[in-house]
Amino acid sequence: MKKILKKTKVGTGVWEYEIEAPLIAESNKPGQFIILRLHEKGERIPLTIADASVEKGTITIAAQSAGKTTTELNDKYGEEDYIHDLAGPLGNPSEIENYGNVVTIGGGVGIALIYPIAKALKEAGNHVTSIVGAQSAEKLFYEDKIGGVSDELIITTDDGSVGRKGFTSDAFEDVLNERTIHKSWAIGPVIMMKVCSEVASKYDTELIVSLNTIMVDGTGMCGGCRVEVGDKAKFACINGPEFKADRVDFDVLLQRNQTYVEEEKCALDRYLEEE
Amino acid sequence: MDIKEDQIPMREQDPGERRKNFKEVPLGYSKEEAIEEANRCLQCDPAPCITGCPVEINIPEFIRHIREEDFQGAIDTIKETNNLPAVTGRVCPQEEQCQEKCVMGRKWDPIAIGRLERFAAEWERDQGAETPKVEKSTEGKVAIVGSGPSGLTAASDLKKMGYEVTVFEQFHQPGGVLVYGIPEFRLPNDIVDGEVETLETMGVEVERNTVVGRLFTVDDLLEGNKVDEYDAVFLGTGAGLPWFLGLPGENLNGIYSANEFLTRVNLMKAFKFPEYDTPVKVGKRVATIGGGNVAMDSARTALRLGAEKSMIIYRRSEEQMPARDEEIEHAKQEGIEFHLLRNPKRFIGDDGQVKKVEVVKMELGEPDSSGRPRPIPIEGSEYEIPADDVIMAIGTSPHPLVPRTTSGLETNDRGTINADENGRTTKRGVWAGGDIVTGAATVIKAMGAGKTAAKDIDRWLANGKGWRSDLDEDREDE
Fold first, then answer.
1. A234 close to B (CB below 8 A)
2. DSSP calls for chain A
3. What residues contact A55, with CB distance under 8 A and at least 6 apart?
């Protein structure tokens, strides 16, 4: 059982939770994730660790209402409530070094994961340019937080309601046009990562993506998270979740993430009806 | 003497009925049936059956107790060497262990030792088994990593010796393969839950959701870094990494590892979706690749989830199947189709979803390194089998997370941890046992390894903790 100490709304349908988990806070490194199960009948879902404080003994996760579990978490779980099961940190940490000029790109709920990576890269001495993108202004979150750990912040929205109108990949291309970038990260919807990967290939610069896949145990046992990387099947949980973008087959990832679309909808509809 | 040639059969759920539910298939012996079966035993001395048992249960003695209607005596005898008889009575391959050595079996049916063991365990459960009292307190703290059969056994033995014992389990529910792998219809999860509860009542701490190797390491446990300091660590982390064949189309939707498929159903209760949140998808035709117990479990689970046709595809013939005879028999009774001497070559999909398995016919050649005849593809014999789902049940590797994150722990090229006959590894204060040492094997062998290691840990803690493993002659002597 893990206790929620603080719950904050950070964007439309996006909530941030500060959870008491001193050991995870101590062991966690940027790029890692947790798996939680809300209650006895719940599903195990992976969520990225957006922040951790060793002093407070807490980790921070952000959840966007999408499927049944995230919707239920955001609707029903508040401060002082307990999450039945929470295991982590899982996955390999990001490789943080002083590379020189780096770009970190976050889209949708992927913005939450960009924050600890940008922060660590900044602390390692990099010049950090962060690009955060959302459909519209109200869906955007963490922009100030990320701005605070970046040398430069670019905001994009699909509708132009704040920042530049367009996609993160457009802004990425502009940055690559301007100066030499030594390494970049892109985390967000698969399609965003795919397009960013195409941009990076065009400019022959290294891009890392973090893959959010179907997952049950998160420790290498189910193989549900397998993705094609460099024509080989890799498990996102133990070989990743970060991979070099130019080696990832994003179409296979898109296809595999569709496996339970009907069931996910059924579970969400049933939940919403009951409420 | 009047010899009863045949075993007393065990009543089972009707195949037509049970293929629609997850309830247990064999229903157990009644008192009368158990006594009648026990009466068949010749009470050999010395008893060859004992030599067939990896934990050397005194089989004739427990059977004699059943015969005399002293069921408490029977369960006590079993529990002298076997902590989990309700589990092993159900899942042990008795036909190739104790029962294979049974003198009766040379001419007639061997004694149904497994069924009698199960009867004794059920009897105890119905009485409301007393939790073993741990009055002794011995100085020493032991950490057990993994709560499968080897870890549960080691934990229980060490607790009874009086040590402080903590079990670390990565899942939310302890039991390892007993709860995520073996289906309810073969081993109900509440039996395992009951065993874990007993351990906790005895004073064993069970830490769930604890991924050793990520949250902290084995080195941390020995050094007291981040967590309490432990004198000894037992690793029972199992063989949890599923194999795939690396064939074209293997990442199509609808292709599962048996681990994923069974974990969704057994641990996450996907058979109760949407009451439970975890889904599993099963189409009309399901093909399971492999010929072991896990393949039988998968094919039979698919049937219970509503598959109209559930098939086993195996590259050798039935004779070489590693699955227990009983499991093969049960699968056949339930209508599982066996496609033998067939090997998959590729998976063919439509719009990302698997639709067919292309197989090639095989013939058997000379024995290979496993001693079984090598399957050889027959050129040009390829054809397609329609399948909406495919379950890969072709084996698993040792879980790499703990070996990879522990300093000074030697593994071999199969990924298993090197350990001597007492379970001592190359790292001081660290023991290992079960599938992480042997590669995927049986529940009872893992339990045996947990027992052996517990004894050796006790010896070591009592004798001043000098370290010498047979693996390393140069290490300091005890």
1. no
2. -EEEEEEEEEETTEEEEEEE-HHHHHH--TT-EEEEE-STTPPPEEEEEEEEETTTTEEEEEEES-SHHHHHHHHH--TT-EESEEEEEESPPP-----SEEEEEEEGGGHHHHHHHHHHHHHTT-EEEEEEEESSGGG--SHHHHHHT-SEEEEEESS-SSSEES-HHHHHHHHHHHS---EEEEES-HHHHHHHHHHHHHTT--EEEE-----SSSSSSS-TTEEEETTEEEETTTT-SEEEGGGB-HHHHHHHTTTTHHHHHHHHHHHHHH-
3. none
Residues B215, A256: C-beta atoms closer than 8 Å: no
pLDDT tens string B367-383? 988 888 999 999 999 99
Burial of B474 (0-12, 13-18, 19+ CB in 10 A): exposed
Query: Which residues of chain B make contact with A266, given a CB cutoff of 8 A?
Result: 274
Question: Which of A44, A70, A72, A221 is best to mutate for the B interface (most B CBs within 10 A)?
Answer: A221
Task: Calculate the average pLDDT of chain B.
Answer: 93
Residue B419: the pLDDT is: 95
CA distance A247 to A269: 37
A231: CB partners within 8 A, 6+ apart: A249
- Give chain A's residues under pLDDT 70: none
pLDDT value, residue B478: 42
Distance CA A90, CA A61 (A): 13
pLDDT at B1: 55
Place of tokens 């219970």: B304
Cα Dmax for chain A = 54
Residue B469: what pLDDT? Answer: 60
Name the phi and psi angles at B300, rounded to 5: -75, -30
The residue written with tokens 């681990």 in the block is B259
d(CA B11, CA B109): 17
Contacts with B221 from chain A: Cβ below 8 Å: none
Collect the ranges in chain B with pLDDT lower than 50: 473-478
| Angstrom distance (rounded) from CA B181 to CA B194 | 17
pTM of whole model > 0.90?
yes
Mutation pick from A72, A84, A219 vs chain B, by most beta carbons of B within 10 Å, is A219
CB atoms within 10 A of CB B227: 19
* A263: nearest CB among B269, B275, B279: B279
pLDDT tens digits along B428-478: 999 999 999 999 898 999 999 999 999 999 999 988 777 666 555 444 444
B250 φ/ψ sector (left φ>0, alpha ψ -120 to 50, else beta)? alpha
- Cα dihedral sign for B98, B102, B105, B109? negative
Distance separating alpha carbons of residues B126 and A212, to the nearest angstrom: 47
Yes or no: say if B312 and B299 are a contact pair by the CB < 8 Å rule.
yes
Q: Give the model's pLDDT for residue B369.
A: 85
Q: In this structure, are residues B345 and B382 in contact, taking their beta carbons and an 8 Å threshold?
A: yes
Those residues with Cβ within 8 angstroms of residue A229's Cβ, 6 or more apart along the chain or in another chain: A239, A243, A244, A247, A248, A249
- Under 8 Å CB-to-CB from A251, ≥6 apart: which residues? none
Whether omega before B242 lies within 30 degrees of 0, making that bond cis, reads no
Q: Does A69 touch chain B (CB under 8 A)?
A: yes
Q: Decide: A59 and A41 in contact? Cβ < 8 Å.
A: no
Going from the C-alpha of B246 to that of each of A155, A213, A233, B369, B381, the distances in angstroms are: 42, 20, 8, 22, 21
Contact A42 B277 (CB under 8 A): yes
**CA-CA-CA-CA dihedral for B14, B15, B19, B24, to nearest 10:** 50
